[in-house]
Amino acid sequence: MKKSNDSKVTEFVLLGLSSSWELQLFLFFIFLLFYMTVILGNLLIMVTVRADAHLLQSPMYYFLGHLSFIDLCLGCVTVPKMLRDFLQQGKIISFSGCLTQIYFLHFLGANETFLLTVMAYDRYVAICNPLHYLTVMNRQLCFQLVFACWFGGFIHSISQVTLVIQLPFCGPNELDNFYCDVPQVIKLACMDTYVVEVLMVSNSGLLSLICFFVLLFSYAIILTTLRTRFRQGRSKALSTCASHLTVVSLSFVPCVFIYLRPFCSFSVDKIFSVFYTVITPMLNPLIYTLRNADMKRAMKKLRKKYAAFFFHSKG
Prior knowledge:
single chain, mainly alpha, 3-stranded mixed sheet, 76% helix
């Protein structure tokens, strides 16, 4: 445990996912594959939306492009260091590095939370008020909603960092996780953290829970409305809603489990942390591409376009 002259902890030891060297090597290759999928999958969605004029003009795919960018960045917050730590015995992170992880994790996580809520509103307008959809969800409103998501994420992340940076750390410095997050860090503070943990729950926990219930309520209204639609349109809308609900469940359930439980921790916390930081950013592009006919059609066109360009340049 490294301390300065005034006994303040200047770095933390991450216990990681395993202490077994053989298991760490195995996990390194597994998570390297996950990480490559996160990068390539989300990049593919961003490029496809950008290259297809029809998708680019659609508010839903405009939001989807931003969601992929957030997932791409979110996957880069914790996974690169985790991969490096798998290949070495000492898993050390500085106090400033710890705060940086907390800031970007909550900045991007809250941003995604708000954006998924916006995407639910977009589907609500598209299905419940289709004749005025493009008028309501105009380009200016879409930009303002995305800006509000980024700004809301910034405010949330600043509040989380403020909770941690004011705490005194002078004792144990071992974090039972593979990255820094508020629930583990505040438990190491040399003071009674009751108020801090209540603030964490009222911020991150309730934010996730409220947004989750709002999303479930909005999709319940959407599904009720779909009962009166024609079969063809209803099938496509149901497929889109199913994709969104899957992503929402993967994103919100781990967040609610991690941040809505003050004063206690469970052995499955690491599993939920892996889901939140690695699995969800990896599965989002797969869910949206495998279940979305427009995305698959646009990717097919993009592949043919680049294949034709490649063979033409070789010729």
